[in-house]
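Pinned message: reference record for Membrane protein involved in the export of O-antigen and teichoic acid
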Amino acid sequence: MERDRGYLAGVRASAATSLTVTVVGAGMSVLLARLLGPAGRGAYAVVTSYALAAAAVGECGLTAAICFFVARDPRRAPDVVRTGGALLLALGAVVGVSGFFAASLVLPHDHAAATAFRVVFAAQPIIFVSACWVFALQATRLAMWNLTRAVQPLLHLAGIGVLAATVGLTLGATVACLLVSITVQAALAALLWRLDVPDRGRIRRREAHRLLRYGAGVFLSTLPYLLSTKLDILLLALLVEPAKVGYYAVAVSMSLVSQPICVAFGNVAMPRLARQGGAADADRTPTSSRRTAMIAVGASLACGIVVIGAMSALAPLVVPLVLGARYAPSVHLLWLLAPGAALLGCNRVTDDVLRGLDRALTVARCEGVGSVLTVVGLAVLVPVLGIEGAAIASSVAYTASFLLLFRAVLRAVDVSARTVPARAYGLLVARAAGMRRPMPLGGGR
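Predicted structure (tokens):
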């Protein structure tokens, strides 16, 4: 029970940080929309969307690999981080150069936006290398990892506020604030890592091989996930009128409301499982890994169902009040997305659980099936049902991915599906008994 408390305490801290980052991001989005206007806000969205997508794909799964191997074998952590940093620097340079020259193709008629695009991509090496230290902290010091995650958006928002109140805000100034906040985050992550692990380490060929092998599995699972979650919007933009895409986008945003809470279970479980799997002492048994995996999956599933259920019930009241009556069609779209949305956060957690158990390729296979179902479902249903068809296709694909991922987790921890209800009941009873147990008054450890 003590280990469960430690795990759940980490989940609470990570969920609180994710919620803070989400709220700051929402506030910043509203502020930028007001200060930059539709054209400036749109240009900034294009620049940052391409930069984030390029970073997510271009890092080739190395950040997850660094987190995994630092947690798996702390004695080799300095070499892992030094080698991973060198690999990420090289990948960041490639992505940065590619984006620099692609700016005129992406934004051919907007010189200011194209310049901002080039500046952001020129900074990609900094973004990539900072991720090395940030994800190493995820494996060793969860509180420091949460701190580095929160610093960047808070600094960015503060910088925008200062500029808006003094000299005024432009697209270039907004991008400059973004890069300054990322640089500060990188410096802070590097300092915290060096304080925790003074050894600089060395670049090792063996570590590079291990990082690239593990990262390849993560990379192969990231692409299908991005395809499953983004393809519906991209396809609808080509097939239906913009207003309907707007209704669908609002419904998708509401369906993701549970994500900051759910993914925290996976963020904490992934390095914990890697550490339990790599520990040599007798105290770290396979039972601890099984328990962590089952708590992570079960709790994230419960959170997803409760939060999406509440959102679905409140949507008819919230949508007209916040967005206006014209967005009423988004409500029934949310209801169609809800079954899959309730499982999507759990899918991300099971991805992390399987990666923590060194089964990244299993994730790729399961997510790949979901991507295929997404493509087929959109191709069949959108021409017939329009945006409703896209919602149904997405919900079916998320559900299929959940079933495959959940089955893979049960196999990985050697648990029979028939025993899951009894195990879940036992965990709930043990948790309830632990909450009722009186706390010691002092003295003992």
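Pinned by admin. Summary line: Confidence is low (pLDDT under 50) at residues 280-285, 438-445.
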